[in-house]
Protein 1
Amino acid sequence: MRAEFDLIAKYFTKPTPNADLGVGDDAALIRVSPGYQLAISTDMSVVGTHFYADCPPEDIGWKSLAVNVSDLAAMGAQPKWMTLAIALPEQNHQWLSAFADGFFACAEKFGIDLIGGDTTRGPLNIAVQIMGEVPVGKSLLRSGAQVGDDIWVSGFIGSAALGLAHLQEKTMLPKDVASVCMWALHHPQPRLALGLALLGVANSCIDISDGLLGDLGHMLRASGVGAALDLEAIPCLPFVSAALDLPIMQQAVLAGGDDYELCFTAPSSQYMQIQGISKSLGLPLTRIGHITDGADLHVHYQNNLLSLAAEGYDHFG
Ligand code: ADP
Ligand code: MG
């Protein structure tokens, strides 16, 4: 489509202070600061899989970038550049304008330049590649967890999954709870400041995109360790903790996706340091268990061991 160029100029061309050359040539040009590594990640958002076609376009714009920022946050990397490959079923200016508003609200919040991409016709599909910088050898890896480490999470867990369950009419939430959960589902807040603050403090880190147990499981396998968690220690909305004996609540907290909080491990000697980070960021950080030797992931609830059918969301499962 020729109109593709007008569309790119109108919606996807913004100043790029972090780049030597942004949108408009055959490739963009960037420079990595001396002493830093390039951290690169891609996440695709597909209609019907990651969002419904009638989801507000602003929310799709925000979230399609936010999930990528979350990946760099989990590495302790500062995002600086991104590309956007987008397939659109039609040229709907109202939709595009709202999408761009949400997308660039997130880009501006985290100081990320859109430096290129591709625009094509097709079923709605949004692929962002994000690039950022981290001091050489310092990034937070999944493989760094050590036996005896405390396991921490940021924010509240399970809200986004309950928002989705509410949307799908699988559960009825009180109005005020529903709106908090729907906001969590559509407006995840990538914990970038936390990821950066954890450099040199945490031994390992992962962002919770597919569910706490599933994502923690990735970390445990990468580190060759196990874990013991206390379900009641996992921070969640008061509405959720009050009903934690219900399977749907346990499912939301342990296996619900889309929270985009960080799960990290650190030696217990960092406890006060982490409390300080929590205070200075105004972000709850909660210790939910510890790393064990072996390979098992145990979750305790009211002094009983839970049997875990709950696994992370698997797109092909
Ligand atoms: P080419 O045909 O050389 O691949 P394109 O026509 O696809 O170039 O793109 C022209 C310019 O617009 C390139 O700089 C490309 O990176 C940029 N671009 C295309 N689509 C997008 C988009 N959705 N967001 C940002 N930049 C884009
Ligand atoms: Mg192209």
Protein 2
Amino acid sequence: MILGVNVDHVATVRQARRTFEPDPAVAAALAILGGADGITIHLREDRRHAQDRDVRLLRETVPTELNLEMAATKEMVAIAIKIKPDMVTLVPEKRQELTTEGGLDVAGQKKHMKETVKKLHAAGIPVSLFINPQAVDIAVSREIGADMIEIHTGLYSDSKGRRKEKELHRVIEAVKTAAKLDLTANAGHGLNYYNVKPIAAIEGIRGLYIGHSIVSRAVLVGMERAVREMKELIKG
Ligand code: PXP
């Protein structure tokens, strides 16, 4: 089970003062020393946290998997083609949202998504699609040529009791559906030190992508330790 650490919120702290610290590239280096298998950065259209310079710097300094999260827009596709991350994760993006609120509507935007995947593939960049745990989205992701999917665990993370059990079951079923279609499945969003274990125990998940909780712990105990503690929890 690989762990991709999302360093967006290191940039959020920096942007609170529009200064030079803390630097997401330094955080990424420490995360890798702590055992991160990859680094994720989400370059948003409004540049509220990560800046273009962060993505360029991470491309130069991350020796493991650099995953660029982005909306399927013309601007972002051009940036990805120029920077060549190790993979792109396409996500829906709304200006007003606090964080990525739901998965992509791949069925509703099939043509556009297919064209975006094609353009990124032409530049040699593998593409993952961030989708809700539902069969139709998995099937469409396969159909339009995605290399991987990332299953949105937000509803699982936000719910409690029986509802949480139900949402966990949906993620388990989604991983099985992806396996049947020979599609690699990752998972992420809202995962933390207290809710990650049942997701990490699902057979067939390639990796987890976690940001806010690791950065939050890193503020208190340091990035290396925060990543090491998460790696310990998710190991098989
Ligand atoms: N995966 C995707 C596709 C995301 O958009 C995000 C949030 O940026 C994450 C994972 C990480 O979510 P969190 O910060 O809640 O761990």
